[in-house]
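Quick one:
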Amino acid sequence: MAGLNIKSYKIRFNLKFLFALFLLLMLPIIFSGCAKKQIHIKQSKHIFKASAIKMRYKTINKYLSSPGNVYSLNSSIISAHIMGYVSYDPLHSGEFVHKGELLLKISAPAIGSKYFAAKANYLNAKTTFERLKRLYKENSISKQAFDNAHMSYRVAKANLNEALSYLKYKNIYSPLTGAITQKNVSDGNLVSPGQILLTIQSVNSIIFKTNVNVNYYKTLLKNRDVNLKINSINKKIKGKIITVVKSANPYSHTVLVRIKILNTSSENILPGMYGVAYLKIGQTKAMIIPSSAMFRKLGIYGVYIANKQGKVMFQPVKKGPVYNKKYIIILNGLQPGLTVITSGINKLKSGDYVSPVYQK
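Output:
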């Protein structure tokens, strides 16, 4: 019985030994198969070539945004010089007029009567003076009579010129080329001397006015170039500071800045339009990326970054303002040294691999 147990034990031991030996023999084959599988996966991985930048802080200009309005350098307030009724009124507020264009006509019969009376008196005084002048040369009259006739002639001529000037006030012409910004009368209205009829502002000579914190006074004197955005027509244009008023408002603690608008003829800018001036006030360090690198995913702004192995990942960022038209300032989400993909964004997805081509 004991011999039988020993024999069965040997058989079990031999079986275990053979199984262990089989495993030892199979391990190289198993690991060899796994290695081949890993190599196959690595070889099948598709790698994209893409432009990229290495993130770092850059020194950029710092701007202060200041709201303001467009004003005309040349404006004219036209008032009445005679009493009468408006008999001709073809224009309306907001219309464009040229220099010398007829704006209004005033019907004033009394002015006409005074003119004709002054003209008749002048012709009579002139005739008398010329007759007495001949007689004086012939020594037929005294010098006093001649001087009196001469004086009467000069007074009559002055009265005629005055009546003629008042007569000219019946027709009102535009003193400049511009737009009618205010109109206070209409056809049939009675006007009197000194009453303001309308206001005209030039559209060719215009400036932008804004009030800036007095702390930036000295900075504004050094940096004259200004970027302007006229919201009414959604236009971005260039400007130049021409005056910084040397007096601060004691209530708002601001100084008035007058900015010349450049190339106004092509921009259709009118007096009264609202806008914003972007004034250079210094420099600062910031993270910036090309606009092509930014995209939106599920309502979140972000970029694609690549690790050392080239694997692409989506990185959410906090978007800042546009800089120099083609860059975006990143307020949060990126750190120096990160690789940001700048091209082929639409062809990539998280998990892809890229071979970055770095841009300067």
